[in-house]
Write a structure and sequence with these properties.
The chain is α+β, with helices and mostly antiparallel strands. The protein has helices at 16-29, 62-70, 72-82, 101-114; strands at residues 3-9, 35-41, 53-59, 87-93. It has a single domain (3-114), classed as Alpha-Beta Plaits (2-Layer Sandwich), CATH 3.30.70. The radius of gyration is 17 Å and the shape is globular. The two termini are 30 Å apart. Residues 2-95 form the DUF1330 domain. InterPro entries: Dimeric_a/b-barrel, DUF1330. It comes from Streptomyces chryseus.
Length: 115
């Protein structure tokens, strides 16, 4: 099942480290099948407030996503970003093909009633 690295990154002053990080990150993704789906774009907040940019990187599965994040190549460049850009990064597993939220609601309802 696919997995995603999702980053909510705050705006930061431009810095040479950020440019180097951006130039080098693609090469760290390739060995793990990672690809940018959303990269540094602003968002349109429909509910609540959102400050910063969104980055979404897709991977074939959670193991590949974790392996990428933990890889020597990525860990080597990570401080180039974290020293200058605040934010949160999470790994999240996608849903299976054919996923239906109504099916999940029915299971949750059944568990709730049984409790």
């Amino acid at each position: 099942m696919s997995a995603y690295a999702v980053g909510h990154l705050r705006a930061a002053a431009q810095h040479e480290d950020i440019f180097v990080y951006m130039e080098r990150i693609q090469a760290t993704l390739a060995p793990f099948g990672g690809q940018f789906l959303v990269h540094g774009t602003g968002v349109e907040a429909l509910e609540g407030e959102w400050h910063g940019n969104l980055v979404v990187i897709g991977f074939p599965d959670m193991a590949k996503a974790r392996d990428w994040y933990d890889s020597e190549a990525y860990q080597e460049i990570l401080p180039l970003r974290t020293r200058h850009v605040a934010g949160e990064v999470v790994l999240v597993e996608g849903v299976a093909p054919g996923y239906d939220a109504a099916d999940t609601a029915a299971r949750l309802r059944q568990r709730h009633r049984a409790a």
